Every structure is written in structure tokens, then in C-alpha cells.
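Sample intake sheet
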Amino acid sequence: MLGLGNTKYDESIKEIPSDDSYPMVSILFSKDNGIDVNALSLTVLELINRNQIRCHIDLDDSYEVGKKLTPDDMEVMKGITLRIANRGELKTSESASINLLKNLNKGKKFNLKAMAKQTNNHSIANKFEKDFNDFIKALKKENAYDGDNYTDILKGGKLTAKGNEIKNQWKNYRDYLKSKDLTEKYPPESEEESTAQILYAACFDVEREALKARENNNSLTDFIDKDGYKLLNIIFNNALLNVTEKRKGDGIFYGVNDKYTVPGA
């Protein structure tokens, strides 16, 4: 066994605690068990990994967003271009996320800076919220989130004893993902496993720590290396902050992070 603090781990630390999708792992087992734009950003990351969304990055060095969005951050966004390919079979929620991106950007090819500036337009932000609600509805339906699929781990919006047990297993897995020592001791056995681990790390906002212990060798890991996941969350939150239309009661509740705003709002 290898110790990390006062906890001891063995090779079983590499085992994924449940077979939930990346967005559902974030919703169920991250900080507040709540729905927010992270679920959408994680879906985009998975589509990039599968080349359903092509990613071109015109930047060489690693980049990390600071405590406030700056002009430098906006220029980094300009160097990250996404192009929607969406060939092949998609889940309903994935189709909804692609439809959202097309509506937000008025096309299939766009850079993150242009997308960020679009979210300051109130009419576009209002449309984004409707598309985001469609995405959440599709995600919940295909995972039976409001049905019987999670009643053993989630009741009344709170985790049950079994749910908390699984959450603790995910916490241990998160410790493995962000630990260089544990990763070197129990390394991923393939590029595919390494990339999947980085995606799981994004569910817990430790994707950059996970990448430091793994190879940056594909478009998704390069996107993470430029803080792309955080930038997506900032952009999508900014859209929700600029919504002006009053929502109708649809039973969907989500959190909005107002820590970052896009200049020009």
C-alpha cells in the first residue's frame, strides 16, 4: 500500500467507483450534488475526446486562468478554435449540447473569445438558457435522474447512506487522479485510460493536477492544458448571468457562478 496523508491505498484505487456518465458524476458526487454548467462543459469535453467536436489550439505554452478574467485570457480564448463535426450516433443530451453551441455561435466553427463575447448579448443569452434547459432535461431523462435509477443513493436532493459511501469512494479516486505519487505507483495502462482519468478529474475540478501526472498527447489534454474546461464554465455561466427573460416554472434548478464575467457585459 501507498500512503497519502493518513490514508493508505492499494491498486484498487484505480477502480472507477460507479459507471455513471461524466456529467452525472459531477452532479451526484461533486461538492453540492447540484446541476450547473459543469455538466454541459463535461459533455463538450467528451465530444472533443471523441472528435465529434474538433479542437485546434494555436498556442504552445500551458496556460491557467487567474482570479479574474483579463485581456490576456481573452487572447488565449482567441487561439482556441472548436469545429462541430458530430458524425455518428449521439445521445440526446449530446445532440442538445451541439444544438446549443450552434445557436450560441451562429455556426459550426468558432473560437472561445468570439463565443464569450456572444454571451454578453441578452437575446443570445436568453436563447442559451432555453437550450441549456433542453440539455438538462435530456440529460436527466436518459439517466432516469428523476425516476428510479438513483432512489437508492439520492432522496429529497440529499445523498443516502449508500450515496455517501459511493461519494467517499469517488473522493479516494479523486485523490488518486491528482496525486503524482499515486499515479506513478499505479499508472494508467493506455492513452485511452489516461484521457478518461483526466475527464473524471474534471468532474471534481482537479483536471490540471491530473494532467501534470499524465501525458499531454491529444487534443483534449491540450485543451485542458490551456484551461479550456474552466474557460467553458466561465463562458456558459456568463450567458446565464446575462439572461433577462423571466423563466417559467419548469422544475429545473441550477446554480450560477458569478465569480467571473466576460469583459464588455
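Comment: The radius of gyration is 18 Å. The CA atoms of residues 153 and 162 lie 5 Å apart.
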